[in-house]
Amino acid sequence: MKTAKSPAIPSAAELYDYLMSQIEPELVKKQIPLLKKKYAGETAEARKVRMTRYKVAFKEYREALKKYMTKLNKEIYAYGKTLMKEAEKNTQSTEQNKLSILESLFSS
Fold first, then answer.
1. Which of 51, 57, 69, 107 is the most exposed place for a label (fewest CB within 10 A)?
2. pTM surpassing 0.85?
3. What pLDDT is stored for residue 2 in this prediction?
4. Within a 10 A sphere around the Cβ of 19, how many other Cβ atoms?
């Protein structure tokens, strides 16, 4: 019997980078340590604009994460439901085999 394929669950860092790379690539994990040097000569006004952009990016990230988690929860629920059906089918098959053996013993 073929077992259902479980949903892929990325690590927290992988998921963060995946989602954030689509929103604000400067905020992926490997880029964050480089920001101080990249914006060393930045004016106060430019920094304020950038911080506002980052604030918006994190808001979008939280929304994207919520959607992703909703989708993942549905996949996990469906996976569990499929496994339950497979277990029921397997149990039913095993019970049917036992009944067949008992029937053949009584008919002998």
1. 107
2. no
3. 62
4. 19
